[in-house]
Structures are given as C-alpha cells and as structure tokens.
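Work package 3, deliverable 3.1, input record:
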Amino acid sequence: MFESLDFALAPGGALLLTGPNGSGKSSLLRLMAGLTPPLAGALTWDSVAVTEDPASHRARLHFIAHQDALKPVLTVTETLAFCAALREAREDRLMTALERFHLAELADLPCRVLSAGQRRRLALARLLASSAALWLLDEPTTGLDDASISDLLAAISEHRADGGRVAIATHLPLPLAAVRSLSLERFAPRRSAA
Amino acid sequence: MTAFLALVSRDLRLALRQGSDAALVMAFFVLAVVLFPLGVGPEPQLLARIAAGVIWVTALLAALLSLDRLFQQDYEDGSLEVIALAPLPLEATVLAKCLAHWLTTGLPLVVVAPALAALLQLETPGYVPLIVAMALGTPSLSLVGAVGAALSLGARRAGVLLSLLVLPLYIPVLIFGVAAAEQDIAGFAIRPHLLILTAFLAAALPLAPWAAAAALRPALE
C-alpha cells in the first residue's frame, strides 16, 4: 500500500489523510486502530509499541469506519448507551452526545427510521459517548449536511483543545486549524522495473 | 464486567425484537420432530425406542440453523468491528455472544423437549436424564458452534461450510446425550454420561472462545 511513511501525532494534533481512491487512507486508519498488523514497521504510543498492550490501545481510540454499525431495531439512546457501556464511559456523556449532534428529539426512535445523514450523525455521536483520546475518522462527512459538518468540526476542535488527537481520512478540504496534511500518494511503493 | 453484561443484554434485546429468528429455530425443532411419527409410523414401541435420538439430532440441527446469527449480522453492518475495538478482550466478547445465543436458542430447546418427548412416547424414567443432558449439552453446542461461525465468517456459502465444520464436532454431545436418556430406561447408571457431557462443557468453556476469537481476528483485518 505505502512505504517509508513516518509521522507523529502530538496531543491536540490533527492529521488529515488525503490521496486518490485506493491510495491506502482507510488501510492506514485500520492499521492505526490495530485491526490490521503492519507488514513492516511499528506503531507506537508515547514510545511504547501498541502491540505490547493492545487492550489499552483499543481503550484510548475510537474508530469511525465507512459503515454506521447501527442495528435497525435498537433506539438511538440504546445504541449510544451500549457504546458507552462497552467502553465503561460515564452515563452523563450520553446526553451531551445526543445534543451536540442534534439527535435529542430522535432519542427514542429505532435506527431503521433514520435517514442516511441522521445515521451518520448517530455514528459520530458515539465519539462523544466514549471518552477516547484518539479519534480515527474514515470519511466522516459522507451524507452530512453543512450544519452537521460544522457540528463535527466543533466537536473535533473541542476534543483537540482537551488534548485529544484526531486522524481523518477525507477527500473534502476540512477547515481545521493547525492541521497536518499527509498525502498518501507520495508514499506509494515504487515498483521495480519489470 | 459492565461491558460483558452490556453485550449480553444487547444481544438478548436484538433477539427479542427480531423475534422471528429465535421463533424460526423453535418452529423448525418442533416441526422436524413431529415429522418422525408421520415418517416411521405411529407404533408407540418404535417411537419410544428412537425418541431420545430424534430429539437430540433435531436439536443439533436446530442449533446449527441459528449459528449464522452469532456473528454474521454484526460482521455485515460493521458492529463487530466496533465491538472488537472496545477494550473488552475478544475472547470475552465471544463468550458473551455465546451466552446470549444459548439463552435464546439452547434454553428454549431444553424447555420444549419434554413436550416433544411425550409426543414420541418416551418412557417416563427417560425424562429427567434427557432434560439434564440437554441442559448440559446445549451450551456446548453454542460454544463449539461459535468456533465454526467465526471460521466461516465472510466465506462464500458459509451455511454449508458451517455445517461441515461443526456437525462432526457435535458428535460427542450427541452420543453421550442420547446415551444418558436410554441407559436410564434400560436400568443402567447415567452418571458417567452426564459427567462426560459436563467435562465436554468444561473444556469448551475456555477453549471455544479462545479459538473463535483467533478465527475472528483475521476476518476483521
């Protein structure tokens, strides 16, 4: 996918992964989440390899993948409460999460009646329901309207102000302050001449 | 522990709200057993002779039918990835899912079995051993089945692959489960059979979640 890739993400930092389709944006995020092991190289957190303690790496990250991972028969509140319980997060974060993404009036509806944008907002509200230090977002703006995108940006900058880190794979230019951009096509493996 | 219980209660809630899945398995169990008197004839002696075996084999098939529910749906909609990325070890996740699966599949099978045994004219001393053996054996079906469900995840024609993987592993449970009921009717001791079923469960309890978790990891890459 890519080679000679080296980067560090400081507390409060943001990393924007760009590149054409198939350049490995999602793969890099999955690698950072610990889902895929790297072929070569290492992933470290505070100079400790994450493979040494995968459980605490999982505890400090939250990965929003392409799929919304919602169950049609569970309500919005149940979906978020399950996510919070899974990460043993505080219950009071739930209401904050619902309000920040304007889901409070949908709280008791089952997920099957939500629109694509509302489903995406619920998936993103999971970020606030869990207290992860590292957010990994794969095309988070898919299906979102402008108001929801600014909600997301506000949530990201608040997360960063609290010392959280965020890595986003996107093809849209997101107006984030002090962002580090990484274009993955520059790291594509050079093919040896056949 | 909170996370473990949250996972169990979520799976139970999903099974209850999508009631058709669990009900379908029960309906299959009842219907398949009811077919036997129609197929082999209504002679009480013949039915009594095959009762325990018919109930056990049908229970195995019913359990098999429900196994794809364990991981498949969560895998397809991305929920499995969310759950796997939680701090809870994947082994504990598998155990929680097996517990929920047993409560919604194995336990109802045990509850319905006496009624079906009556239908098949099972002799009276056979009831208690049959129920005890099923209560000990069905959790093993869920646990061993989880390994097969995890291995066949994402495979083409997963259902066929799953039955080929899992049915041979169900044979010990079948043999000793049937023997427990039949030996008691014949007047022999049933203790050894129940102990072997317990031993099988005791071995599956730690080994199956470990093996299933190992099979899930590559599927999630």
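Chain B has a mean pLDDT of 90.
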